[in-house]
Specification:
Length: 122
Amino acid sequence: MDGTGTPMTPDTPDTNKESIAALIGRLDDPAIDNRHNAVLALAGIGPDAVQPLIRSLAEATEDERRWYRSVALAKVGTPIIAPLIAAMKENPDREFRRYSAVSSRRARGSGGRTPHRCDGMR
């Protein structure tokens, strides 16, 4: 449920910046179903969600936060690869690069080793 008590679903959201930002915020929701629905909704938005997700991944300081952003990026698919490579060239943070590399491999369908979790969301 969201803050109003309304259950969240992975419906196709409006792709404006505010709704993308709200969905990224829901990746930190205490309810796992809300986090999973946010991942699916962001993936459904597609390429418009890529740059905001990359920025959010770069700003994340905890592995769980990085994980959900990484999963959402991977579910967008191959449109994430070029922007992630560019971001990794600019950002020297080891954890950012690690989670970005996993997202990129998973987006290409080559699996990629998850950083420290089993297979998480599939």
